[in-house]
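Lab meeting, item 3. Inverse folding demo.
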């Protein structure tokens, strides 16, 4: 990130900041609310969410900077759809079904991004370029009349916005990308997200419903409790300022250095005294730290199984050993906190809820974002004609 040209916060970010009280004046909202327990455990609801949310809305596949170089590609499965993201020769991001047009094999299977201008199917070596064109197949004479032009990869609608790659998982029905290319992307640009690079990333496999994973980031109540031996020393109970950008959630929380007198509109200053975080609906978790941005990409697998890709996005390659050590320590800490604390708690909740003991879970004033997120899921289900 270029320190000489400060990043100016957006009107929406400034509005939330202006509403933040001094730490000593925080008033925690008093709220009683409940969520039906079966929202987390019902396989029929999970199937409906897969269609209504993950097939009809733009979903996050990865940060754009994962494909930093032209002529590179990356594959990831999102709710049963194998997705191939490419950065073409001219630097454009494209998305395709990662499915070979010959016999349907998953074309690319590498876990990490690959730097190569073409993709060769491991089965019979049909070869595609990064624009999805079928450019070669062995012994093509055995397929009389085959027109290579007709057998390119199936393209998925996608948008490269605010440093994130959003895709539509239904090739026949593009979702409304205006919900992710407007104000949300402007906010992310103000945070310099489009200028970050992937310092490191890790994938977690959890035995928990995907919304329990989202809840772990939507709950400011647990931070100084579940994380008492890890993150609590960096955190304080904060009266979060929260608003919505369409189905997405924007949140401003205090660091213990927060003072109203220090508030200004420069992101470089504000990230030292407060924390912006976002839920990029439906599957992105973005938390801004002083030196980096944490991005979680949540990928539901089954009612009780979820994978999460965690990315530490840094502002420029670490130039000093001190900065390198700091980022490495942060990455190791976050990896441990997620695996041993947040995702562990989500798995234990999954087991508790799956026992059928509770009809509903209780929410208080520091968990209002869980309600906001559940409402966005319910709205998507209703839009798709599912009874919520
Ligand atoms: S399935 Fe891909 S080349 Fe045969
Ligand atoms: Fe947490």
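The presenter then showed the designed sequence:
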């Amino acid at each position: 990130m270029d320190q000489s040209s400060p990043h100016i916060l957006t009107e929406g970010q400034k509005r939330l900041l202006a509403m933040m009280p001094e730490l000593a004046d925080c008033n925690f909202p008093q709220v009683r609310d409940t969520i039906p327990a079966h929202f987390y455990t019902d396989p029929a609801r999970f199937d409906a969410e897969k269609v209504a949310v993950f097939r009809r809305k733009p979903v996050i596949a990865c940060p754009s900077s994962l494909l930093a170089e032209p002529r590179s590609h990356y594959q990831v499965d999102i709710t049963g759809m194998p997705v191939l993201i490419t950065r073409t020769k001219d630097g454009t991001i494209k998305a395709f079904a990662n499915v070979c047009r010959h016999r349907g094999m998953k074309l690319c299977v590498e876990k990490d991004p690959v730097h190569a201008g073409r993709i060769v199917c491991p089965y019979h070596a049909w070869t595609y370029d990064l624009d999805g064109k079928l450019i070669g197949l062995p012994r093509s004479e055995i397929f009389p009349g085959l027109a290579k032009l007709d057998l390119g990869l199936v393209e998925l609608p996608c948008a490269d916005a605010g440093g994130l790659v959003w895709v539509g998982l239904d090739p026949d029905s593009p979702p409304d990308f205006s919900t992710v290319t407007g104000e949300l992307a402007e906010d992310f640009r103000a945070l310099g997200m489009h200028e970050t690079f992937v310092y490191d990333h890790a994938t977690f496999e959890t035995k928990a419903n995907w919304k329990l994973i989202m809840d772990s980031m939507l709950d400011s109540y647990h931070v100084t409790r579940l994380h008492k031996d890890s993150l609590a020393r960096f955190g304080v109970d904060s009266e979060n300022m929260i608003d919505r950008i369409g189905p997405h959630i924007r949140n401003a929380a205090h660091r213990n250095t927060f003072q109203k007198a220090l508030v200004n509109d420069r992101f470089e200053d504000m990230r030292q005294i407060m924390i912006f975080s976002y839920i990029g609906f439906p599957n992105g978790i973005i938390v801004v730290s002083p030196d980096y941005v944490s991005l979680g990409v949540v990928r539901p697998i089954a009612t009780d199984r979820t994978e999460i890709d965690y990315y530490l996005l840094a502002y420029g390659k670490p130039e000093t050993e001190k900065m390198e050590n700091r980022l490495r320590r942060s990455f190791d800490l976050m990896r441990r906190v997620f695996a041993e604390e947040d995702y562990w708690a989500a798995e234990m909740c999954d087991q508790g809820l799956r026992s059928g003991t509770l009809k509903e879970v209780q929410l208080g004033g520091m968990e209002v974002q869980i309600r906001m997120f559940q409402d966005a899921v319910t709205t998507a289900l209703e839009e798709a004609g599912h009874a919520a």
